[in-house]
Fold these 3 entries.
Entry 1:
Amino acid sequence: MAAVGAVMPALGGGIAVVARPARVSAGAVRAVIGCGVSWILLGPAARAFDRLGLTTAGTVRTRLRIIPVAVFASWQTLELRTLRPG
């Protein structure tokens, strides 16, 4: 759980850096979305291969952490599609 939790502040800091400029680059948004999708895929994969050695409570928490990441990645994808070049 500590390893999973340690990644979250790093991702949050990266998102803060990307969101800071007045005009956010589409490439940076795609990178954030890619990190989110990776997070969504790696959690269940690590559990399937028992790489984290999680308890039942840890498994539930790891699965619950996927929900907000999926919601934000969906919002970011929708917002990216609304950007107009120029």
Entry 2:
Amino acid sequence: MSEDWRRAIDLGLALAGGAELPQDPELPALLRRMAPQVGMTAADAEVALGSESGTAALAREIHRRTREGTYRLGRAFGTSDSLKASGDHAGARRVLEAAMAAEVVPIYQAQLQAYLDHVDDSEDT
């Protein structure tokens, strides 16, 4: 995990726990870098950074997307593996396709696609 991701996750956790938005001069740059990594536009990030409440909302949204995407991938990979192990490759594919349809974080989309690309491979290869 990159340092930016770790910092964004830590910030989101702190805000979720009731902490105030830190007065960190590097925070806007961090959020600008992270926004596209979680499927947000640079324009939306800039608008949000125009106010303290918007900045906090942006940090929370980045955290929400990373958290929900992580859970979605874990569930999809686990369920897909179980279905594939039982011989239900079509079911495994459907689970991954459903997760892909819901996913907005580009790196998570790439991980799902990699799983989809190999869902029909035998376990021996």
Entry 3:
Amino acid sequence: MVQVSEERRFTSREALIDAAVHRLLDRLPATGLLGGLTEFLVFGIKQAFACLFGGAMLALILATRLWWPEDIGLARYDFLFLSAVAIQLSLLVFKLETIAEAKVILIFHVVGTIMEVFKTAAGSWVYPEPSLLRIGDVPLFSGFMYAAVGSYLARVTRILDMRYTGYPPLAATLLLAFAIYVNFFSHHFIIDLRYVLFAVTAFLFLKTTVHYRVFRFRHRMPLLLGFLLVALFIWFAENIGTWSRAWIYPSQHNGWSPVSLQKLGAWYLLMILSFVLVTLVHRPRSLPTKAGDPSADAAPTPGGILTTAPEVDGSAA
């Protein structure tokens, strides 16, 4: 695990946003009800900023479901693909995303598209609308749905300055991720090992705690709980996606119905796979302490809305 501060993790545009919001929020009380509400507000803003790519894609999926001109001469799926590329380029041009995150999106697009080709051929789900930009029965925009998960995880890691205690060996997590990916294919032919994978995941990460900076304070959470919360959020987003008929499951052919809760387990495993892939770009960093005091993560620190401080006493902002 990386032990010390790395390169500056924010773009020049993000630094400007940080400075502007820093000037506003530093005037607010640090304690009491208002201090707690400020911390909660900043957490929400940071989460929204981390979801820029995925949020934009989900908004387009909804918008095109509610209104799409039939005579435009461009398939809805093709528009979504071209829009995803445009969003990606815009984030880079306007310096709201790092090159490393763009690489994560590319990796996830490839990994996700391969899975999509297999799963649609197996009848797990279908894309009911026509398009030109596709591989077999899979429109190319679908890979960006996986990329949105990778983009969020990569961005939230640096935006919340995530540090870890009790993190398992990187090699073990890579083996777990590989086994999860293989099981998504192999369970169609042999026994489904997802419950074994759940158990291995619990064994590896049971003692892992993620420590994340919001505004003035660093908070902590069991990493397994964090995995579950993100998977639940993705499950909600999938319900929106299937309602918009961007893709549908066999049970939804005759009308929309909520996605089965069983899919939450699949998203939980896929999210762990995504998290491990992101650690290849943003290596897990240990929690910095003040003079060796493990309790330093609870100390108030001057940090802006997008500030990552290399030390817990907030020497950078």
